[in-house]
Amino acid sequence: MQDTVREDEILLEVRNVSLSFGGVKALEDISFDIRKGEVRAIIGPNGAGKSSMLNVINGFYHPQEGEIWFDGKLRHRMKPHQVAKLGIARTFQNIALFKGMSTLDNLMTGRYTRMHANLFAQMAWVGPAQREEIEHRQKVEEIIDFLKIQSIRKTPVGKLPYGMQKRVELGRALAAESKLLLLDEPMAGMNLEEKEDMCRFVLDVNEQFGTTIALIEHDMGVVMDISNRVVVLDYGKKLADGSPDEVRSNEEVIDAYLGVSHD
Amino acid sequence: MFYRESGDFKTSYIQDQQIFPILQDRMFVAVVAAFAFLVVPFLINDYWEKSVLLPVLIWSLAAIGLNILTGYCGQVSLGTGGFMAVGAYASYKFTTAFPELNLFIVVLLSGGVTAMVGILFGLPSLRIKGFYLAVATLASQFFLVWLFNKVPWFYNYSASGQINAPERLIAGIAVTGPNAPPWATYLFCLTFVVVFALIAKNLTRGRFGRSWMAIRDMDIAAEIIGVAPLKAKLSAFSISSFYIGIAGALFFLVYLGAVEPTEAFGIDKSFLVLFMIIIGGLGSILGSFIGAAFMFLMPVLIKNILVNGLGWSPDIVAHLILMIVGGLIMFFLIVEPHGLAQLWRVAKEKLRLWPFPH
Fold first, then answer.
1. pLDDT greater than 80 at residue B162
2. Using a CB-CB distance cutoff of 8 angstroms, which residues of chain B are in contact with residue A130?
3. Domain boundaries in chain B?
4. Which ipTM score applies to this complex?
5. Domains in chain A, start-ordered, CATH in brackets?
6. Which residues in chain A touch residue B281, judged by CB atoms under 8 angstroms apart?
7. CB contact, 8 Å: A89 with chain B?
8. Chains A, B: CB pairs < 8 Å
9. pLDDT surpasses 60 at A2
10. In this predicted structure, what is the pLDDT of residue A259?
């Protein structure tokens, strides 16, 4: 499969990554790639190392072995905020919004890496800082329209219901206009309707903005429907990799995860 | 309320981003500012200057400084008194070493020196959080006061170990020293407070403020968004210390005139400013003013009523004040952690719909 993909079509490649915490091996020799413009799902049972994988991509964890290639370049050891500058945004499994700030401010914070007004310009406000603020506000308003969260623009996010908070968190990641968007269980804890909305948003982001998406999700229906390719992890090892159909019919995956009785 | 925002439509983002989005609020603030600058200087006397206006203005500035660090960036600091001492001693060294230097520049430079000291003592914040950081900043409080007592160079080898503000003029009018007229000292402080309150508001509503609040609310997510914790925390420490240093310089030069570090900048001052922002409102510039005025004026008011009005003995009243302040702090921590500023916001929300809340 690797052979049919041209090198420049790959956005992120993880090569032989191993990560361990003391004696516990969280990831063992994992390799996979994410192509430009695709929706890539990472699935696996609890403790399989999915979130660890995202944390490695984000720069929170530094793998003991292996390489990460992003956008055609080998990525050296980086801190998370440097990774953000490269163009990788993320949402969290447990909502990690800035609770004391309004929806608008949360989204504006998402554009942090793209704003450059210096200290003195900001002290004066009028002038470059204000121009920049307005320019980015326009972009943020586009995202607010896209996610249909106009009515909660100025509400402190701590007061919002769960589904809305998830949506604002997606908005904050979108505001960064990243090349790669990592979604850690974007539909966890949602009801059917909210899930459908979220799926629609994920697909729209992918199609309209052309953003590459990697997502972790437990709802197999969702995963099989919206992802182009799926990689399956179990106990830190890669079990399978391929299209949803291939993965679904893979014996090992069924044994480890999807669960079928063997009579 | 007497007015509401209905009918006040915003048609551009500039209008939407104003500090006071409601027209009547803007008018009110303009009137207050005009009164403070144009009317008060003619009415002010010694009592109002020394007992009410100057201390409230100076403590407000210190409270804004600490609020930037603690309220906006979430880093608890108990070093405020020490940083004020740095500002005071820096201003003393600057005015005595360069007598011709304009007093505005002296105060700003003192703030700059304090900012650098603040960065130094802010370095532990990169590793430690919460209570442990508070203890680390406590060390700065004691170390700095000790330093200013111990090293004679700081107080120009004076026999008493005190520092005294020399008389300095701005445009021919004394602003420091015993001959300074009340209106001059008042206007001098007011200018600093107004300008720097505005700057603080601008910083906190822009990119810097958002990076601080992001670190405060969820530091992991802040990092993922691209906020470098080092930069955000140290910028908060330096800007906060800058404000506190200016407050310390004004406190010494204009208000006290003569300073002995243990007395003037002790740990009680650090706590006082911390209580101001807790009661006034964490993460609110308005709250810094309310808190400073409340914490400073409430004891004055109680004393005036009980001692002068009812004739109670001053020592009983002094103890009573301590008990009331302590009780209020506990009350606020339990009932309204966001302080008086939040109560004000809630009151406004309620009054918007009054008298038909449904």
1. yes
2. 14, 17
3. 39-263
4. 0.88
5. 2-258 (3.40.50.300)
6. none
7. yes
8. 104
9. no
10. 64
